[in-house]
Specification:
mainly alpha; SNAP receptor activity; Methane Monooxygenase Hydroxylase, Chain G, domain 1; transmembrane helix; 4 helices; SNARE binding
Amino acid sequence: SSKAIFDSPPAAPRVCMAAARSDVGALFSKAEQQKRELDSALGFFAEQRVMQSEVAAQQRLAALLSQFSSTVDLYKQEVARHADKNRVLWEKRAANLSDDLASIQRDVEKKIGHFYKLQKEEDDRSKLFDGRKSKSVDDDAQSLAKEHSALRDSSSALDDVIGQGQRILGSLVGQNKVLKNARRKLLDAANVMGVSASLVSVIDRRQTADKWLVYGGMVFTLFILFSLWYLLRW
């Protein structure tokens, strides 16, 4: 019995190994839980392009990543401190957790960088829209000013046209009076020309009669002279 007592392993090392397994297992479970929370947060970032609380979501994601990194470091330290038959499994789990940590860090940097890019695009879009609105207001004001100027110019041109029409109407009235006077003068001239034509006709007839009278007198005179010459010749 005394030999069995001496051959059996001490109780204290077994208690220490059990405590080590418990600590390593608890840290691994904690790391897995934090990893799932990080995956969930990253999924939230991937699904929500525009978030209601961007700063809070970033802070939560950064805090989860810091906690997961600390847990992985602590897990690797615990694995390195204890020599156990399960150490190979623990080291493999530690390596997997390190790979997961590196991958999650890249995803976090990518998501946050993508968020900053989206935020910048949103800010630029807002500035662009504000600029367009301001430009649109300026364009509307300029358009109204141009329309007002065009209406004023059109009104002035219309006044000029009306004034020109009034002047043309006055000129036509004056020309109508001149034409009436000319018509009256033409009628008077026509009457005078009619009297002159009748007078010329009378004069022509008188001249014709006088011509025949002269011719008759000449013939009669020649007859008298010829008769006297004939009588006196004998």
